[in-house]
């Protein structure tokens, strides 16, 4: 057995015999290990406790040396309690083997005995507990701040034990002994009101009633003159009872213990009347953060619910809470005065911060500073001395700017999710519906209103304040009208209701609180960012600024805006992307002195982005930087359709070349058709490129018939005998588009005609590598349709190799998929299926990275048929079920993939498994992620084809 005593100089005993720890370093190491209470202590913390500022150069080695010496000193019996884990070193002994553990347990027992009116036993328990103290806790570690909190807790518990020992003596009738001890006690700790309470009660019971009243008045004068506060409610009530000669004061029972008093402390915070929705996880994280850190900052944008979180946490605490509201405070002195008023300081002296520290230095509780963003510096300068001088104090701040205090634990508060992790309605929708029902108990939700609710929550970014204010307008406008108005303005929202904890009268006012307090140049920079949808890079932000602002340190401005919570930064992307909340965007639009110029600058940036990207060959790879700019590109094109339709058509047509990764949906088709309709008299090449882009989009979404139609329209637009190099280049691409769609339709004649025209016209012309790769792919597919198997496979292999060299990864992958499909259309053959599986394995990661869901569905479907041919039946069914489920989810027709596989292959797939096994495999597939399916496929292929 190993015992450790730290209430004074460290003493370690093994089986009752004292151990020589080998000097100061060994004693400090044991003391530091004991602070873990049996759990591991991290190496960095151990080194800080043992060596302080004089850290060894090789920390790990130095720790190892000291631990080795300790193990030798502890001997074979004791050394087994000194453990090494991944989290650090631990002195793994139970609490009852330490004097600290024995002391804490004894005090808890004494308090329980006192509450059960067993005063005599309680007095003995407290006296026994206090004999364990031989000096300051962790005496060997000096005054290190790392243990300030733990020390203060032990010291406070000792003070409680001293006081409740005297309370027990009073209850036992040892009034004279208790009064003598308490007279010394109030001199030693004059600000501990419990001692004055017990002393006055003892004097009263001794028949010295006038002296008892004199002591109560003495402590009142002391507290007012020294701290500027009145005595607490217990002392004030005791004085009134003595003046009234209440009979209970002479009763032998003990006064209420301090521990019981602390549980019933009335905080200055009460919960709002409305139900808190969707913040269970955040409250738990806040509890954990404040249990581990003495200062926590709730950081987030206007209206996100920081104050509500702080109030809910504060109202649930059992200890004292002081809630300081700073929304109306403007100066440093006013911050201190607001805190003093909440704490209960009546008169501030010439050193108010020191005065606050004296008031709080022996108290345990939470000090909340709400809405600090406009006085962060003043709040920080107040918080620092309070944390340093009041070890029992913890601080919680709510702000849109960090305070920058050492040790500050920042907890970002995010808007409520509109969708939950399973794809259902999130907490934002739940909050809105709850508030609407609270305004109209007879309201019944319809599907149209549910759709409108989701849109309202999206337009309000999931901000709780905005959602609650929108819900308050439901009876006046109806949900659909609210959503319609919110697209353009925020004043449709209601005003903050009476009794709300929000300091702002409206959501507009809450946003303005942040934006209007920015430095003028920062605010001017922010206002120009409103056209961006879906985020932006720092280069994009710079591009929309007026010329006179373009020499500014843009990264510094963006950092300042992030610090003020008016924009957010996604640092997980490269480059970092910044984003304005939709509500802030609308506010900035209304604040912009020249919104038309700002929107024109944004559209110009989109044109430059596309021009530069296409000039650099973006179509040579699937995916790329434009993936993240889709929303901005659409907005820029929409602007140009109205103001410069030819530019809009040019941009939209250019986007076609990367449509595989950024725009394979009907929205892009509509933009292109609108742009074409807006400029009917532009050059034929421009119109033809737009029609080719439409053909590509139709091809991507699986409409091969429409793809052929638009390609034919492009060919007609240019004419049978194109004039000029540019017209010929456009015609070549149009022919390739038609050939690709014809292959999907299995129209051998049309495919061959297009491929032959291409070959004839391109023979003596310089052709871009990506065009050559596409032509080789079409030629290989056409040869397969013509049943020229060997030639077709050889051409597809050549297309794959050529595309890999020139970087056109889509052709590289698609050549493998076409080859695999062709091999799998035949009668089941294990050798052909193995070849097809390896081709699919090469193509899968390329198409998965490309961002085109249709390509991904196609390769997974081919993988399902490959596994079926290899007799890996359950996994084959799982892959096929996932494709069908995903196709239905996005509005696609699953039959397009079945058609490409062939009717015979589909029929074989349907008969692979008995119904029960088939249903189980389908459930597995639908529940899997694309990554899990890929692992499933590769693992199966590796087993069959080692």
Structure in words:
With 946 residues, the protein is mostly helical. It folds into seven domains: 96 residues, Arc Repressor Mutant, subunit A, CATH 1.10.10; 162 residues, Tetratricopeptide repeat domain (Serine Threonine Protein Phosphatase 5, Tetratricopeptide repeat), CATH 1.25.40; 133 residues, P-loop containing nucleotide triphosphate hydrolases (Rossmann fold, 3-Layer(aba) Sandwich), CATH 3.40.50; 82 residues; 76 residues, Arc Repressor Mutant, subunit A, CATH 1.10.10.10; 65 residues, no CATH class; 125 residues, no CATH class. The chain is built from 45 helices and twelve strands. The strands form four sheets. Strands 7-8-9-6-10 form a five-stranded parallel sheet, sandwiched between helices. The protein has a three-stranded antiparallel sheet with strand order 1-2-3, covered by helices on one side. A two-stranded antiparallel ribbon has the order 4-5. A hairpin with a 2-residue loop joins strand 2 and strand 3. About 3% of the residues have low confidence.
């Amino acid at each position: 057995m190993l015992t450790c005593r730290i209430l004074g100089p460290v003493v370690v005993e093994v089986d009752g015999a004292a151990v020589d720890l080998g000097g100061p370093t060994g004693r400090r190491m044991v003391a530091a290990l004991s602070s873990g209470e049996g759990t591991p202590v991290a190496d960095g913390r151990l080194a800080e406790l043992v060596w302080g500022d004089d850290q060894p150069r090789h920390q790990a080695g130095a720790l190892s040396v000291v631990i080795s010496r300790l193990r030798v000193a502890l001997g074979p019996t004791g050394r087994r309690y000194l453990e090494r884990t991944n989290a650090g070193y631990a002195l793994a002994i139970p609490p009852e083997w330490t004097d600290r553990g024995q002391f804490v347990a004894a005090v808890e027992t004494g308090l329980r005995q006192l509450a059960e009116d067993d005063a005599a036993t309680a007095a003995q328990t407290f006296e026994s507990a206090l004999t364990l103290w031989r000096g300051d806790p962790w005496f060997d570690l000096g005054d290190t701040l790392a243990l300030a909190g733990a020390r203060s807790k032990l010291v406070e518990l000792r003070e409680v034990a001293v006081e409740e020992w005297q309370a027990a003596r009073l209850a036992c009738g040892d009034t004279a002994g208790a009064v003598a001890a308490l007279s010394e006690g109030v001199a030693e700790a004059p600000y501990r009101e419990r001692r004055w309470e017990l002393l006055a009660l003892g004097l009263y019971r001794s028949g010295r009633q006038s002296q008892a009243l004199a002591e109560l008045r003495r402590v009142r004068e002391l507290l007012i003159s020294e701290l500027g506060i009145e005595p607490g409610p217990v002392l004030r009530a005791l004085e009134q009872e003595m003046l009234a000669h209440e009979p209970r004061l002479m009763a032998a029972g003990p006064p209420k213990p301090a521990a019981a008093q602390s549980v019933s402390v009335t905080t200055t915070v009460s919960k709002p009347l409305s139900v808190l929705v969707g913040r269970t996880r955040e409250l738990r994280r806040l509890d954990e953060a404040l249990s581990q850190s003495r200062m926590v900052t709730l950081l987030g944008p206007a209206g996100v619910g920081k104050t509500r979180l702080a109030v809910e946490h504060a109202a649930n605490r059992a200890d004292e809470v002081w809630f300081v509201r700073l929304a109306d405070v403007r100066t440093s002195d006013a911050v201190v005065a607001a805190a003093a008023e909440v704490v209960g300081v009546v008169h501030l002296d010439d050193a108010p911060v020191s005065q606050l520290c004296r008031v709080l230095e022996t108290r345990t509780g939470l000090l909340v500073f709400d809405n600090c963003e406009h006085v962060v510096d003043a709040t920080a300068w107040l918080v620092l001395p309070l944390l340093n001088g009041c070890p029992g104090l913890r601080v919680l701040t709510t702000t849109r700017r960090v305070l920058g205090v050492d040790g500050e634990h920042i907890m970002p508060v995010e808007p409520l999710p509109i969708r939950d992790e399973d794809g259902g309605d999130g907490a934002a929708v739940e909050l809105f519906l709850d508030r609407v029902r609270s305004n109209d108990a007879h309201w019944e939700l319809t599907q149209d209103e549910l759709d409108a609710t989701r849109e309202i929550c999206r337009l309000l970014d999931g901000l709780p304040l905005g959602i609650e204010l929108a819900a308050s307008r439901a009876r006046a406008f109806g949900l659909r009208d609210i959503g319609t108005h919110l697209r353009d303005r925020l004043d449709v929202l209601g005003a903050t209701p009476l009794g709300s904890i929000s300091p702002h009268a409206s959501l507009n006012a809450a946003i303005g609180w942040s934006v209007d307090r920015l430095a003028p140049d920062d605010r001017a920079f922010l206002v120009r960012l409103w056209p961006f949808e879906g985020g932006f890079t720092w280069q994009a932000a710079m591009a929309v600024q007026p010329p006179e602002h373009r020499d500014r340190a843009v990264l510094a401005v963006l950092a300042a805006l992030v610090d003020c919570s008016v924009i957010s930064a996604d640092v997980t992307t490269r480059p970092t992307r910044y984003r304005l909340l939709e509500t802030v965007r609308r506010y900035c639009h209304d604040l912009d002195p020249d919104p038309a110029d700002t929107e024109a600058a944004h559209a110009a940036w989109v044109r430059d982005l596309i021009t530069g990207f296409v000039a650099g060959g973006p179509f040579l790879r699937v995916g790329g930087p434009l993936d993240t700019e889709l929303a901005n590109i659409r907005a820029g094109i929409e602007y140009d359709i109205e103001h410069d339709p030819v530019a809009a058509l040019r941009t939209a047509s250019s986007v076609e070349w990367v449509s595989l990764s950024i725009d394979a949906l009907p929205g892009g088709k509509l933009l292109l058709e609108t742009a074409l309709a807006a400029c009917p008299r532009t050059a034929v090449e421009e119109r033809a490129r737009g029609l080719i882009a439409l053909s590509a989009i139709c091809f991507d979404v699986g409409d091969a018939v429409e793809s052929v139609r638009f390609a034919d329209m492009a060919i007609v637009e240019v004419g049978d005998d194109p004039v000029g190099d540019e017209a010929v280049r456009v015609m070549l691409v149009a022919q390739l588009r038609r050939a690709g769609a014809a292959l999907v339709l299995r129209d051998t004649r049309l495919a061959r005609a297009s491929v032959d025209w291409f070959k004839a016209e391109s023979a003596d012309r310089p052709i871009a590598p990506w065009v050559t790769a596409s032509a080789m792919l079409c030629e290989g597919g056409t040869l397969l349709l013509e049943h020229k198997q060997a030639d077709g496979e050889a051409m597809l292999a050549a297309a794959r190799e050529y595309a890999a060299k020139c970087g056109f990864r889509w052709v590289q992958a698609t050549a493998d998929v076409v080859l695999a499909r062709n091999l799998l259309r035949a009668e089941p053959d294990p050798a052909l299926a193995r070849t097809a599986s390896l081709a699919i394995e090469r193509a899968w990661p390329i198409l998965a990275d490309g961002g085109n869901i249709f390509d991904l569905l196609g390769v997974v479907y081919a993988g399902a048929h490959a596994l079926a041919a290899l007799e890996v039946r359950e996994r084959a069914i799982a892959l096929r079920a996932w494709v069908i489920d995903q196709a239905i989810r996005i509005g696609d027709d699953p039959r397009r993939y079945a058609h490409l596989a062939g009717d015979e292959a589909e029929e074989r797939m349907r008969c692979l498994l008995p119904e029960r096994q088939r249903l189980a495999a389908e459930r597995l597939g639908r529940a899997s992620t694309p990554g899990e399916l890929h692992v499933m496929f590769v693992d199966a292929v590796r087993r069959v084809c080692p």
